[in-house]
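User: Run a structure prediction on this.
Assistant: Running it now.
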Amino acid sequence: MEKKIIEIHDQFITLGQLLKHESIISSGGMAKWYLSEHVVKLNGEFEQRRGKKLYNGDVIELVNEQLMITIVQAD
């Protein structure tokens, strides 16, 4: 599984924003569909809320894309 580290410059990023930022979806409106059709895990637990806030240290697994993303706070 490919591992990637994403730096955020705010306190948090939402799951929908992250999916768009990483070009996994082309628009924010696709987030609800994507999360209903694909397995996404947040810190090992299934997650389907596009507005879920992701913070420093969170680990997101996109099983269909074989991608693991770790959120870190930028300095």
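The two ends are 27 Å apart (CA to CA).
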